[in-house]
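Summary of Year 1 activities. Much of the first year was spent building the evaluation harness for sequence design. The harness presents a backbone, in tokenized form, and records the residue chosen at every position. We chose the following record to illustrate the format because it has been used consistently in internal testing since the harness was completed.
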């Protein structure tokens, strides 16, 4: 009898804690429903386009339409900073979620910054590449590319103010590091006006 009373008391305390602390995630805590990045050419390039990012149950859905590309595959990445003050894209920092890079001032790996998902190892995909490494854009002979993908484990809130870059070449592993060549287009991720 005493064991049943103790169990009942624990269940009631659990329900009280959930009620007090709001046991549900509010939709606005997940971030804006739609983000947008208007891609502009880097110095001496002509590549431009629009990238839309939607909040979905699994994470975020990326839809990109880019033109002015050379025929073939091009690296396509989310970078840590939205700093486009350099016309070559030199100030955007590492790929978002790159756990191997060092911050400029502290020498700590980026994964040690902050708390929650910003500082956790969940920022990499199962293959070990950063979450910011998206599917490559593949341009047709008219220089246009369309790409859609879902990135699991990200929220739109985590991406506001970061940047998206398009590279001149496909992602290639060279000397243990991924390389996609020079940046040909860049844009800052912002909150989109929705109807």
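For this record, the design step produced the sequence shown next.
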């Amino acid at each position: 009898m005493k064991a049943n009373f103790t169990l009942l008391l624990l269940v009631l305390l659990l329900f009280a804690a959930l009620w007090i602390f709001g046991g549900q995630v509010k939709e606005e805590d997940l971030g804006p429903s739609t983000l947008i990045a208007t891609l502009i050419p880097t110095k001496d390039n002509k590549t431009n386009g629009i990238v839309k990012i939607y909040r979905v149950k699994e994470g975020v859905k990326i839809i990109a339409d880019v033109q002015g590309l050379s025929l073939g595959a091009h690296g396509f990445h989310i970078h840590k900073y939205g700093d486009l003050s350099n016309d070559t894209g030199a100030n955007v920092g590492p790929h978002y979620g790159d756990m191997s890079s060092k911050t400029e001032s502290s020498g700590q790996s980026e994964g040690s910054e902050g708390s929650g998902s910003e500082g956790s190892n969940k920022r990499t995909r199962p293959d070990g590449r950063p979450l910011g490494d998206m599917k490559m854009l593949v341009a047709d002979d008219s220089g246009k590319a369309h790409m859609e993908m879902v990135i699991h484990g990200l929220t739109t809130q985590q991406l506001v103010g970061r940047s998206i870059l398009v590279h001149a070449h496909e992602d290639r592993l060279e000397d243990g590091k991924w390389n996609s060549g020079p940046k040909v287009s860049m844009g800052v991720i912002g909150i989109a006006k929705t109807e």
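The domain at 26-191 is CATH 2.60.40.200 (Immunoglobulin-like). Quantitative recovery figures across the full test set are reported in Table 2.
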